[in-house]
Amino acid sequence: MLTYRWEPRHTIATFVALVMLVNAGRAHVDPSSDPLPSWNDGATKTAIVAFVAGAASEGDAGYIAPVDRVAVFDMDGTLMPEKPLPGAVLPLAADVKGAVAKRPALANEPGVAAFLKGDIPALVALGQAGLAQVTAAAIDGRTTDEVADGMAREAHAAVNARWGTPYPRLAYRPMLELLRYLEANGFETWICSGSPIAYTRGIARDAFGIPPDRVIGSALATRVQEREGRVVLVYTGKVDQVVDREGKPPAIYRAIGRRPAFVGGNVGGVGDVSMMRYAMDRGGPAFALLVNHDDAAREFAYAEKGGESLAAAVRYHFHIASIRGDWNTVFDPSVNARPPTP
Fold it and tell me: Cα–Cα–Cα angle for 105, 128, 212, nearest 5°?
């Protein structure tokens, strides 16, 4: 029979091995790192980090199964500025005028009429429905392939009048950090925007790192045609689906089939409240983030006249991200270095 004699050196070796094992288990956690450096320390940042950490920690009360880790964000006003106009409007002026010259009846659409008159307040008041009407008129008769190629080029060239910078370069830096943080913890990120899907798909990857197949947007009607021996889809000049307000939850369901566990929207038109409530009512851990435009110096200051979105945030337990208070920077430093043009 073999015997084993314990010696002090074995105690030391065992202790060292245990320390190494424990440290190995913690190696992936760096307590000094900050996943959201463009966010100021405060209640909102703390809540985001706690939610994401819980969602990714099996056994935690806030744990979310990987298949259910879906995050959906509005685009205009949530991931990049929507003022003075949503980016999708800018490349359309010449195309709208040309389309109306060929089909005068298009001018009867309220959004198109406001656009042609230069009545920006009236166009903005129509919300995403007005934007969809303008876009439908602009691309009437063009194929989906033509529009996809052209819209991507035009979207990257469209310049925001305040900063003199193309819209894709004006992605909010804090929100880009949030997208990457969610993805690093197993979340699948999506965009659900009222802007036409052809526009949003054209900039989603370069501006936000989100592939075009994870974009939900307002849809324009198409019909099948044969041109030069090829089957193509051609836009009809009609709006098929407006993804805004109560239209967002059905669009999310059709595209994803699951309620998001994390959702981001913004104040300004009550367009995201329904989507945010849809997420909060999922029957499990959920987080809704409402971007509050309250920083006229670095971005813009605006909200609904009645404060409906902020009131909904209090009533339905959304978290509010104050641009003025929660973000220590808004855009990439190269954008901040250029004084904005009023």
Answer: 110
Contact 247, 217 (CB under 8 A): no
Number of domains comprising the chain:
1
Residue with tokens 């389309």: 99
Angle between helices 43-55 and 173-184 (to 10 degrees): 20
Mean pLDDT by 10-residue block, N- to C-terminus, for the chain (342 residues)? 40 36 35 86 98 97 98 97 84 74 84 82 78 80 80 79 91 98 98 90 94 92 91 84 90 97 95 97 98 97 95 97 98 76 59
Q: Is 1 helix (H, G, I), strand (E, B) or coil?
A: coil
CA distance 295 to 291: 11
Question: Residue 269: which CATH number?
Answer: 3.40.50.1000
Contacts of 292 (CB under 8 A, 6+ apart): 266, 267, 303, 310, 320, 321, 322, 323
